[in-house]
Specification:
With about 325 residues, the protein is α/β, with parallel strands linked by helices. About 30% of the residues lie in helices and about 25% in strands. It has ten helices and 15 strands. It has helices at about 40-50, 115, 120-130, 150-160, 175-180, 195-200, 215-225, 260-270, 270-285, 300-310, and strands at about 1-5, 15-20, 30-40, 65-70, 85, 95-100, 105, 140-145, 165-170, 185-190, 205-210, 225-235, 255-260, 295-300, 315-320. Strands 3, 4, 5, 6, 7, 14 and 15 form a seven-stranded mixed sheet that branches. The chain has a six-stranded parallel sheet with strand order 10-9-8-11-12-13, sandwiched between helices. The chain has a two-stranded antiparallel ribbon with strand order 1-2. Helix 4 (about 150-160) links the parallel strand 8 and strand 9 (about 165-170). Helix 3 crosses helix 4, helix 3 packs across helix 9 (about 270-285) and helix 8 crosses helix 9. The longest helix is centred in the C-terminal third of the chain and has 16 residues, at about 270-285. The radius of gyration is 19 Å and the shape is globular.
Length: about 325
Amino acid sequence: MRAVEFQEYGGPEVLEVVEADVPEPGPGQVSVDVAYTGVNFADLKARSEGYRVTDLPFRPGLEVSGRVRAVGEGVTGLTAGQEVTALTGGGAYADVVLADAVTVFPLPAGVDLRTAAALPTVLPTAYALVHSVGRLQPGETVLVQGAAGGVGTVAGQLAKAAGAGAVYGVVSGAAKAAYAREQGYDEVFVGEFAEPVRAATGGRGVDLVLDPVGGDTLRAGLASLAVFGRLVSFGNASSAPAWSVGQPELYPRGVSVGGFSILTLARTAPGELRSLAERAFAKAVDGTVSLPVTAEFSLEEAAEAHRLMGARTSTGKLLLRVGGAH
C-alpha cells in the first residue's frame, strides 16, 4: 500500500510517499481502507518539531473516513465494508490505517465520506471547548482565536447555537476575516484584539476565550476576559515558549484557565471520548453545524497541503483524498 512518512524533521519537502505493508488489526483494533484523511496542524508540528513523535520514520495523520477492512479479536458492532469515521492517533496518511475500535464510529446518517473525514478531531474538540470545558451559558460572550480554521469555524457555530450573546473571532488576515464572517461570527478582529474586544464589549470583556495559538496571544486572551471569565487553551500553534500565569492575572478578577486535547482524552479515557463524539456528531446530523471542508489534495500532494496550512492562508478544513472516495 501507499503511505506518506518522513524520516527527518523539516519542511513539507521531507514528506515522501513510500510502499508499506498493509497492517493487520490486533485485539480490539480495526483496519480501515481510507477514503479521506484530515490534515491537522498537529501533523505539521510533528513533521517540523517532533511533536508527539516517538520514532522515525513517522507517518502522520490523526483521522480518517473510509470502510472497515478487517476487525481484530474481541471487536463487536463493526463489520467489513461498513462506512466509518475514526480517530487514529497517527498513521492516517496511508491507504490502510489501524485504529482502536472504541474510536471508530459508523458513519452518521446523512454524512458522506468526504464530510466525515472532518468529524473525528474538529467536531468533538469544538464541542468540548464550548460545552464540556468552556461551560458556555446562554447570553455569555465568546472570543475564538483561529476563527477561520476547522475547529474555529465549528466552535463559532456551536456557540451561536448554544445562545451566546455575541461571538467574536480573531484571524490573521483580511481573507480569513471575510470567511469567518460568512460562517456567522458577529465581529472579526485581524491581528491585535485585546483593545478592540474591550471596546466591542463596553470595557467588560468576554466570558469565554478559546485559544489554539498560545504565547502572547494567550496572554492577550487573558486580558480580554471579563470578571469570572474562562480561557481554554487547546494548542500552541505559535510554538512560543511556555510562560507562567501569575496570581495577579487570576484571582483578583476570578478568571480561570483550562486546557483540552482530544488526543489526551483518546489515550486516557476512550470511553469518555466516545460519549463526547456521539454528542458532537449529533450536531452535524441535525444541521446545527456544517463542517468546513474547503480544499482537498491527493495523497501524493500531502506536502502541498502542508505548505498551504503552514502559510496560514488556508481556511476551514483540508483533506487528503486517498482511495475509494467516490
